Each structure stands twice: as C-alpha cells, then as structure tokens.
Amino acid sequence: MLTRLIAALALLFLVTAPALGQDVAIASPGKVIEVKLSLNGEGRIHYRIDRHGAPVIGESQLGFLFTDQPQMLRNFAIVGQRTRDHDETWEQPWGEDRRIRDHYRELSVDFEEKSALKRRMTLEFRVYDDGLGFRYRLPARADGKATNIAEELTQFRIASDGRAYWAPAFESNREEYLYNATPIGGVGTAQTPLTMVLADGTHLSIHEAALVDYSGMNVARVEGTLLKAVLTPSSSGAKVSRTGEFTTPWRMLTIAPDAPALYAARNLILNLNEPNALGDVSWVTPRKYVGIWWGMHLETQSWASGSKHGATTANALKLIDFAAKHHIAGMLVEGWNVGWDGDWFANGQGFSFTKPYPDFDMPRIAAYAKRQGVSLIGHHETSANIAHYEAQMGAGFDYFRAHGIDAIKTGYVSDAGGVQALGADGRIHFEWHEGQVMARHHLKVVTEAAKRRIMINAHEPIKDSGLRRTYPNWVSREGQRGMEYNAWGVPKNPPVYDTQLFFTRMLAGPMDYTPGIVSLKGRGDTDILSTLARQLALYVVIYSPVAMAADLQENYEASPVAFDFIKQVPVDWDQTRVLSGAIGEQVVVARKDRKSADWYVGGVTSEVARDASVPLDFLPAGKRFTAHIYRDGPTAEAGAKGKDMIHEVRSVTRGDTLALRMAPGGGFAIRLAARSRR
Ligand code: NOJ
Ligand code: CA
After folding, report:
1. Rounded to an integer, what distance in angstroms lies between the CA atom of residue 246 and that of residue 147?
2. What are phi and psi of 363, to 5 degrees?
3. How far is the CA of 240 from the centre of ligand 2 (A)?
4. Ligand 1 pocket check for 130: Cβ under 6 Å
5. Is 351 helix (H, G, I), strand (E, B) or coil?
6. What does the pLDDT look like over 559-606, one tens digit per residue?
7. β-strand 64-66 against 573-582: which pairing, if any?
8. Catalytic site residues?
C-alpha cells in the first residue's frame, strides 16, 4: 500500500491583487513563523524570517547568475501574488512515523524585471510552524534555449552568532566527515544539513528538499553570520542546465526552540516532497540484515578473489543458516561479482553486474536462501563509474531479480569529483557526487529498480532530500561516516559524533549506519569508541528501514544477550518521540513498533558520562510492559571496558521513570514489551 491520503482539508486558492507597496508577508498556520519579502530601491528581492517576532534570518538576497545571460538580481517589480492554505494528514508506507500532518500556508510571488529583458521569476514559500521551504520557479526561456545557472544567489543571513555543527563540502571523502562545532561566524564551506543554535537558543537547520534534476546546495560563509548557497559544480560549466519551465529544490529551514523539537520537525522534508509516484509499494519491506561485509573491512576477508575471498558459496550458505536460525530477514553479499581484483577504487570499468566469481554459485545460493526464508541483498559497487554502470544496470537488475533478489546496496566509491559520466558529446566527464548529473543518475537507478520491484540503499550517495516519499523503494543510504570508519580507524568515530549526527544528517532521512559491532573491535584488534549497550542503542537512535547486524556471526554467537536485542528491535515505526537531547551532548529517543504495541528507547551520550531520567509517559495508560533494559555497567566506558553491560528485566507502566547512567561513550537500549494482561 502506498502513501494514503487520510484527510484533505482546506485547499483554498486565493488570488489577490498585486501589492501596491513592495512588501509581502505570510505567517505560518499557528503564527509562529513569519516570512517577509521585500524589494529595495534597486529592485533587489530580500526575504527575512522571524520566529515569534524574533529574527532568525535577517534580510537576505535571492537571485541567479547565469553562464550565458545577465544575472537576475535587481530591477524587479512584483506583478502578482497568491496565497494558499493546506492541511492534510498522510500515511507513510514505512518510516519513523506512520502518519504525518502537512499543514502550511503558501505564498507565491511573481516578479518581473523592469529592465528591457523583462524576465520573470516566481518565489514560492511554504510556511509551517516548525520551518519553511522556499523555491524559485523559472519560466522557459523566450528563445527556447536551456537556462544555464552559474550560481544561485540565495543568502541566509543568520540573525545572531551561536554554535554551528557542520561537515566540510567539496573534500575528498565526499559526505563522510566528522562535524566541526564552531561559532556560526566560523563556518567554512559546509554541506547541508547544517545545524545551528542561535544566541537565543533557537535551533535552525538549513537543508534542501526534492533535489531533482538540479545540483546539490552547499552553504558558505560570506562575512559575519551571512551565509550563501554554493551549488555543486558540473563539468559542463553551468552548475545547472534545464530546458523549459522548472522549479529549484526547496531551500528548507527547520526552526525549533530546542534540539528535541528540531528532530521532531524532521518530517518537513517529506512534506516538501511530492507524494508517492510508484503506486503499490507493498513490495517495499523494511528488514534487518546480516552480511559478508565486516570481514572485508577488518581485512580478514577480501572482496577480491583468492584465498581470503569472502563471497564464497560455503560462507554464503553458512550465513544463510545463521540468518534463518535467528530470524534475520536479509543477507548482503559483497564481493560476489567479477571486478574486485587489483585496485577496485580505480577500476570501475572492470565490474560485471551479471557475472559472479567462480567460487560464488549464485543459483545454488539463491535457491538455498529461498528455501530458508532469507532474502538476499545484492551489491553493486560502481567505483563511481556511472558511464560503465548505466550501460549494465538494467541487465544487472534483471540478473538479481531472476535470482529473487529484491534489494540492492549500491556504492559510489571515488574521491570527490571523481564520478565518471558519459557526456552528450560521447566522452567521459568527471563530475561531483552531488551535482546535477548524479541527481539524474540516482533517480534513474531508483525508477529502473522500481520497475523490477527492487529497493535501493545507496552508499557514497547524493544527499537525502526526502525523495523517499515520492520513491518509497529508495529505502536508505549512507551519506556520512558509518561504522566502517570504526573498522579502519584513524580516527574512529568519536562518541560525540553520534550526538551531532542525530541533529544534522539524520534530519535528512534514514542512514545505513551498519551498527551492532558487539565485539567492539576494529581492524587489528583496535577498540571501537563505544560501549556494548550503545551499539544496541544505535538501532533505535539512528533510523534506517534496512538495518544491518554488522558484526561477524561468531561475535554474535559469543554475545547472545546483546544479540537478542538486535534480533528483536524493529526497523519500521509507528511513531517517534525525542525524550531529551542536546547537540553534541546526548539524545534519548523512543519509538513505537509499527506491528505491535511495543516501544523501544535508545540513548547515547558523548565522551561525557550522564544520568538519563526516562519518564515512561509515552506509554498508554492502564497497560503493563516488561522492560528489557540494556545499560552500561559500573565499570563501563567506551573502548576496552565497553563490554560491561547490565541486562535487567522489570515490570513497568506509564508513570514510572527509569534512571539510567550512561558511561563515557556509552548509552542504553530498552525494549518495552506490551503484556497481554494487566
Ligand atoms: C564503501 C561502503 O560504505 C561499504 O559499505 C562497502 O563495503 C565498500 N564501499 C565497498 O563497496
Ligand atoms: Ca562509505
């Protein structure tokens, strides 16, 4: 079943006369947020945003630079405006919440240049009580040519200084960087989501929604706390090239009084996307999975052929048995296909997406998995050679489908700017992972996969802009530093990272973080900066509808208590509540299972030990629950002492409060199983 409209209330279209003055304003439904658009004496368009009357974004310019026509920046007049109210509640096929309310007021303002060119542009604002989106609508060019954008001149004048949490843009590891925590006045060139806490405590995150056929937006500081959009470059000169009328992605500002409210506003990105375009998506089925994977990152196994080859028939059959025994629905196999020998980072050209290595008997493995009730998850590493991949992609999808595989993890490993794409001139061009070429590529992958009822989980992806609403088979992606960094080391993900990730990257959508390393060991027996209880907490905190039990089979067999939680924890939720949180300090989140009355709670802290108080007031009244609590023991701390975990079982009810100590780099996980009787 798909995105279902539950209630469509007002869809009121009001056409009002053009303003006599040159200022236009619109407030959110609850009058929390107000946007003002104005034209100055030079006919430059500015917008500003207030929350409860206090400025969040000061006067900021809007406009465009083009590669082949004069800029659009000044000499504008308002020639039309419309407002519209919208309130509906819709249902997600899967996600962190089943029902989502989409309640906004919209303002569209048409501008025309007073100069000889008389070009037009429309600005559309959708204003919610917890944020807003705005986008440009540009008409087709009068001469029929493409609109070639050199830069988008959108600014964000942050109203005060404060703290900013940001990962650098345009660096070689793409989206995979630790967060900088700096004054807003210390932001460099940042990826989005970029999250800030203003001087008055207002939490603001800048990101984008519906990144379709356009280049990804980064944000760079101009001076003081003035930031500006910087689009991702393209090999063709113009950063964006579009023919006919088009809209830009939504420039999205999530605005909340505190950190928990910021995460609570995360569905803004889905509301700003178009509804499900795929029809029946009952075949999109969230799941946990194990895989032939961590061994490669530990270097005890290899993707490449040879004595260490991980993807052998024997290994696969063994892991299928393990998954079946423990009711883990999925199993990923990497290194199954020809092309990994030698320097696979550089040899995308050598990958076959239809040819397994000789020691991987795909028909036998697929048949065995089917008999055991385990779903295989396929893998397509492309080394970011999308020219090579696109030529084989359809055949690769068909090959997997023929073997009953309905989910694929894709990968685009290459340094930033190293995507190889086929240009219109028939030549290979080097592109960025978040440029317009890749925005197009990913949608091609997702829609071609959907035709075959296949789900996609992309690594080294383009940023998440909420397109899972429109294409619900785009179930997850990576797009920040996942667990693999804890295998490699130098540096491993520090505990503070997860508490920043939650309020930045996780505002964009699901992340295939691959948690659950219960051994707490990376490559060469090095310690992971986590406790065991925290590894369990990550399943609740870091949302993904496809969640990996990433450790080796033998490590789970040696940790049955921890593994029991991993087996139980759902990947699809009915609702989500952030119980407490502060960026870079800690987060505690509760989620209700979609298929039962059970609740789960996860908490993680930074390097600092903290006492969490968890009131169970989200539970329904009059019902008893069995709480299975997995918490840090008295000697626990991230690293070598991380395995000290206490597992206790208690009967609890609404009104109870759990007091839980989180060790340095620690956390806790709770399963609240509803009892059938009081
Ligand atoms: C990087 C991905 O993040 C990882 O999960 C994968 O194993 C390797 N690339 C190889 O594709
Ligand atoms: Ca990666």
Report:
1. 9
2. -60, -40
3. 26
4. no
5. coil
6. 999 999 999 999 999 999 999 999 999 999 999 999 999 999 999 999
7. unpaired
8. 484
